[in-house]
Write a structure and sequence with these properties.
single chain, 217 residues, 4 helices, two-stranded antiparallel ribbon, 13 strands, globular, alpha+beta
Length: 217
C-alpha cells in the first residue's frame, strides 16, 4: 500500500510539471504581421536568379499586437516596425545585419520597453545589431487581405495575390519570412518605402515582394 501511495504522488507531481510546461509554452503574444523585402519572393527562376546576388538586402517588418503580455506588461494594441539591412541577400543567415526599431508612441514607457524586449528576445537573428530605437506614431490597418502600415520614414501597402497563386505554385516561393507565421501568404507590394532615418533610402512597388500572416510567441 505504501508503494502504491508513493507511486501516486510521483505520478501527480509529473502530471503537474507537464501541465505547467505545456502552459508555459503556449503562445501569449499574438497579432498581425506584414513584411516587405527588396526582392521578389514569388517569381520565375530567371527573375529570382537575377536578383538574389544584387538585391534583397533590406526589409520592412511590422507587427500589430491583438492580444497578450510580456513579463506582466500588457501589449494589446501596440505596434512596431523594424527596418533591416544586411551586407548580402537576407536569405544568407551569415550576412551581417543592422536594424532600426520604431515603437508606437501611444504606448506607455513600460509598454515600449516590454515590446522592445519581446522583439529582441524573439527575433534577434532576423534583426542583427539594433542601431536605433525610437518612438513615432504608427498606423497599422488590416482589412480583409489588405495591409497598410505607415510611420515617419516608413510605409507599406500590400494586397493579396490574385487567386492565391503562391499556394498553387509553392515552388516559385524563393524565401522564408523573417518571422515564423501562421497561415503564411505571399503578398503583392503596391508600394513600400523607407526614407532613410538611419540607413539608405529605398522604395519598391508593383511586385510580389511581401509576406503576411499571424505571429505568435
Amino acid at each position: 500500500m505504501k508503494r502504491f501511495w508513493m507511486l501516486a504522488v510521483v505520478l501527480l507531481v509529473w502530471v503537474g510539471a507537464v501541465g505547467l510546461t505545456s502552459q508555459a509554452e503556449q503562445p501569449n503574444v499574438k497579432g498581425d504581421y506584414v513584411e516587405v523585402r527588396t526582392a521578389s519572393v514569388f517569381a520565375g527562376a530567371c527573375h529570382y536568379n537575377g536578383e538574389v546576388t544584387t538585391t534583397g538586402r533590406e526589409a520592412l517588418m511590422a507587427w500589430d499586437v491583438t492580444s497578450g503580455s510580456w513579463n506582466g506588461t500588457d501589449l494589446t494594441g501596440l505596434r512596431a516596425i523594424a527596418v533591416v539591412s544586411a551586407d548580402d541577400n537576407l536569405s544568407n543567415a551569415q550576412a551581417a545585419r543592422r536594424s532600426e526599431l520604431i515603437l508606437d508612441q501611444s504606448a506607455s514607457h513600460a509598454q515600449r520597453v516590454a515590446m522592445l524586449n519581446a522583439i529582441k528576445s524573439r527575433y534577434s537573428a532576423s534583426l542583427g545589431e539594433i542601431v536605433s530605437v525610437r518612438s513615432a506614431s504608427i498606423s497599422f490597418k488590416h482589412e480583409g487581405k489588405s495591409y497598410q502600415v505607415s510611420s515617419s520614414d516608413a510605409a507599406i501597402n500590400v494586397e493579396a495575390m490574385p487567386n492565391d497563386l503562391c499556394c498553387r505554385m509553392p515552388n516559385l516561393v524563393w524565401y522564408d519570412p523573417l518571422v515564423q507565421l501562421g497561415q503564411r501568404k505571399v503578398g503583392y507590394t503596391v508600394r513600400a518605402l523607407y526614407a532613410g532615418h538611419v540607413g539608405d533610402k529605398w522604395q519598391r512597388a508593383g511586385e510580389n515582394s511581401a509576406f503576411y500572416g499571424n505571429f505568435a510567441f
